[in-house]
């Protein structure tokens, strides 16, 4: 959960402040209690701000705790310059909050502070209402989760293993822009490191990992050519080599080019990418490490933001096919979906009983296992960072994953590349709208409705929110 700082602003006249201070404290305590009950850590200023000196000193005190989000609580008319001074001392994500109480002009105070912040170009969010109401608390929490995701990017390192894949401009981003806008450094690593390091992985633990997959997967379909025990072990060795690179270079998230060099001459990275993105592997529970196939940088960045909000694995897929007769999209990618999506269970065995390891097809002559499964049904939010004339925007859609009877699932999957993982997605947007302006071949998703969080992320990062269909809000011009 998030660490949230709270500063409460008051009237700058001593006789007025004396009259309203008790009410200000009451509102602040109510906000703090609601957030703590929801599991967040709250850091409160020692004093209600009613002078310019307190605005600076209390803001610095709260900022020292490095909160994910700082809330300026404005329950009464508060002198707007207090918010301006405090904002200068709180460089992280900022939110203005006002209760709605006809006895006190808190809303007036919030709007005055907001106008001042707008004039100086300070980014912030706004929430108003009674925090005891679930929808108001939900909006406040959405901003907190968004702030936590954005703060999580600052000072992080992305490991780019390999260069541009197969001519994809959308997979390559400007490291200078990433550092300036997101605070993310990019470490360039050659794919040869995976080949070289894989040879040194201990044979015993590789064999044990292969046997674990053979026991728990629904099937490991060796064919003696494209998938053999030796090729599967090579993929496992690549996984361990990538884990070694992550540890050595302190990588927070990553991407692997793979195509065409590794997929033609070494092995596919499907097993490596799937289990890096999983919350477990054959050695037990672990943290999800976002790893984008084809070293797609904006994919990885999108996924890291979504992971920061949801704390779950994040889907990576191609927008492969649209079944017009069913209004269903088949989201397919070359073996990269985390196995967690098969059932979304905390128990790896529950997920893996729906996972098959099939031999790779003609696209990948080096061979290896493709991690095949069909995503479990449920509500999802889909997103993707793209750029238009150099400016970032966030494509956002709402929708769900669906499953049908076994025969229908089989028929639909066999219409594309069966061996790869699939997700049957129903978007709450018309296909014409998606195909006419969606700006990437890749798409990403997490469970639940994350629209409010993504709107807040866009505000905090100064990028354009571009919602499709029910996600609302067209691209800003």
TrEMBL record:
Alphabetized GO MF terms: arabinose isomerase activity; L-fucose isomerase activity; manganese ion binding
CDD domains found in the cross-reference section: L-fuc_L-ara-isomerases
Signal peptide: none
Keyword Metal-binding: yes
Keyword check for Metal-binding: yes
Domain L-fucose isomerase C-terminal as annotated: residue spans: 331-466
Domain of life: Bacteria
GO cellular component annotations of the record: cytoplasm
Protein name: FucIase
Lineage: Bacteria, Bacillati, Actinomycetota, Rubrobacteria, Rubrobacterales
């Amino acid at each position: 959960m998030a660490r949230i700082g709270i500063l409460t602003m008051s009237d700058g006249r001593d006789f007025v402040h004396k009259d309203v201070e008790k009410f200000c404290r009451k509102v602040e305590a109510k906000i703090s209690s609601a957030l703590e009950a929801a599991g967040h850590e709250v850091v409160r200023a020692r004093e209600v701000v009613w002078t310019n000196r307190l605005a600076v000193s209390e803001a610095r005190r709260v900022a020292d705790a490095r909160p994910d989000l700082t809330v300026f609580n404005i329950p009464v008319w508060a002198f707007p310059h207090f918010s301006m001074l405090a904002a200068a001392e709180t460089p992280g994500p900022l939110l203005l909050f006002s209760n709605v109480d006809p006895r006190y002009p808190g809303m007036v105070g919030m709007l005055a502070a907001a106008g001042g912040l707008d004039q100086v170009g300070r980014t912030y969010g706004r929430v108003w209402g009674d925090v005891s109401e679930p929808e108001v608390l939900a909006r406040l929490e959405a901003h907190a989760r968004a702030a936590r995701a954005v703060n999580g990017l600052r000072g992080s390192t992305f490991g780019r293993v390999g260069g541009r894949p197969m001519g994809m401009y959308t997979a390559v981003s400007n490291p200078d822009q990433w550092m300036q806008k997101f605070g993310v450094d990019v470490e360039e690593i050659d794919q040869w490191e995976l080949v070289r390091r894989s040879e040194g992985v201990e044979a015993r633990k590789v064999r044990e990992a292969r046997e674990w997959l053979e026991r728990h997967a629904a099937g490991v379909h060796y064919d003696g050519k494209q998938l053999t025990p030796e090729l599967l072990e090579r993929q496992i060795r690549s996984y361990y080599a990538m884990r070694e690179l992550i540890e050595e270079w302190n990588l927070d998230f990553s991407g692997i080019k793979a195509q065409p060099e590794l997929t033609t001459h070494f092995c596919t990275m499907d097993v490596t990418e799937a289990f890096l993105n999983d919350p477990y592997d054959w050695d037990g529970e672990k943290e999800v490490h976002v790893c984008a196939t084809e070293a797609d940088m904006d994919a990885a960045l999108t996924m890291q933001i979504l992971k920061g909000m949801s704390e779950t694995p994040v889907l990576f897929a191609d927008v492969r096919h649209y079944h017009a007769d069913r209004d269903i999209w088949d989201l397919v990618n070359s073996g990269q979906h985390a196995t967690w999506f098969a059932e979304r269970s905390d128990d790896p065995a529950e997920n893996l009983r729906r996972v098959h390891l099939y031999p790779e097809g003609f696209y990948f002559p080096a061979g290896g296992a493709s991690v095949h499964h069909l995503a479990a049904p449920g509500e999802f939010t889909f997103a993707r960072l793209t750029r238009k004339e150099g400016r970032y925007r966030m494509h956002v859609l709402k929708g769900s994953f669906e499953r049908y009877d076994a025969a229908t699932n089989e028929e639909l999957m066999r219409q594309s590349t069966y061996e790869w993982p699939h997700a049957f997605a129903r978007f709450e947007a018309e296909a014409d709208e998606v195909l006419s302006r969606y700006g990437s071949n890749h798409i990403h998703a997490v469970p639940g409705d994350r629209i409010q969080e993504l709107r807040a992320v866009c505000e905090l990062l100064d990028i354009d929110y571009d919602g499709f269909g029910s996600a609302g809000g067209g691209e800003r011009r």
